[in-house]
Design brief:
With 257 residues, the chain is an alpha+beta fold. It is 25% helix and 20% strand. Its main location: membrane.
Length: 257
């Protein structure tokens, strides 16, 4: 009987030691304690910036296409108030004598635009976009010499003219521009919808020369440098005449494998 008790005790101790050693082997093989570190680098890459402007076009080029522009004086001559209240309002408006109406929808229905034609139809990005980085040492302009021309997707019936800066999309060897945490990026969009080329103050009312396909707004998207997106779907809309402040937060997660 004493031998049986001894065998039971030895068996229990042996089983306990076996389970303990197995657990320690599992513990040493697979880490169960994760050391989480949060760092805030002093310098990091600027995200890619994609912006779209439906009004970034040269309207005078549309008048040379399959659909001709309509002069304002022709509108006043052909239509009269007896044709409806809306027509009466249009006729009585003080249109400039050289104002031209462009039927954009009919133009796009009858014309398939090639890449070379789109190049002439859109305004240079320098005409409506400026970007600068402000730091304690001064300020410098953002690099726009190698910008990408994005898709012409739009959520309206008119194509959107999109540009992307600081992106490695289709140019993987590009060196990304960097800023410090204390730096600030200022972006200004200026949409001249008068086409008068007059040097007057911002408070002066200037009547436009052409109609435009959309309201004064710009679509903006900030994203990863190796990705591409459409600000119409994954961005924000910035209205004209307003000032916006956007705070960026970058998070990088390394998962255990």
């Amino acid at each position: 009987m004493r031998h049986l008790k001894l065998i039971v005790v030895v068996g229990c101790i042996g089983g306990f030691l076996y389970q303990t050693i197995s657990f320690l082997q599992y513990y040493w093989t697979y880490a169960v304690v994760v050391d989480i570190q949060t760092i805030a680098p002093e310098e990091f890459s600027i995200p890619a910036i994609t912006f779209c402007n439906d009004n970034g076009i040269n309207p005078r080029y549309f008048c040379n296409g399959p659909i001709k522009c309509i002069m304002a004086n022709m509108i006043k001559t052909i239509f009269n108030c007896s044709m409806g209240q809306l027509i009466c309002i249009m006729v009585t408006l003080k249109f400039p004598r050289d104002f031209r109406t462009i039927p954009y929808s009919d133009y796009l229905k009858k014309k398939n635009l090639s890449p070379s034609e789109l190049k002439y139809l859109k305004k240079p990005v320098e005409d409506f976009f400026s970007c600068r980085i402000i730091s304690s040492a001064g300020q410098r302009n953002c690099k726009t010499d190698d910008l990408l021309i994005g898709s012409y997707y739009s959520d309206s019936n008119f194509f959107g003219v999109c540009y992307t800066i600081n992106s490695r999309w289709s140019q993987p060897d590009k060196v990304l521009e960097k800023i410090k945490r204390s730096d600030k990026i200022e972006i200004e969009f200026f949409v001249d919808m008068t086409d008068r080329n007059t040097n007057v103050s911002m408070d002066t009312i200037i009547l436009p020369k052409y109609n435009y396909p959309s309201t004064v707004a710009v679509q903006l998207g900030l994203h990863h440098n190796d990705a591409s997106l459409s600000p119409h779907r994954n961005g924000v809309e910035l209205l004209g005449g307003k000032k916006y402040q956007i705070t960026l937060k970058q998070v990088c997660s390394d998962f255990l494998k």
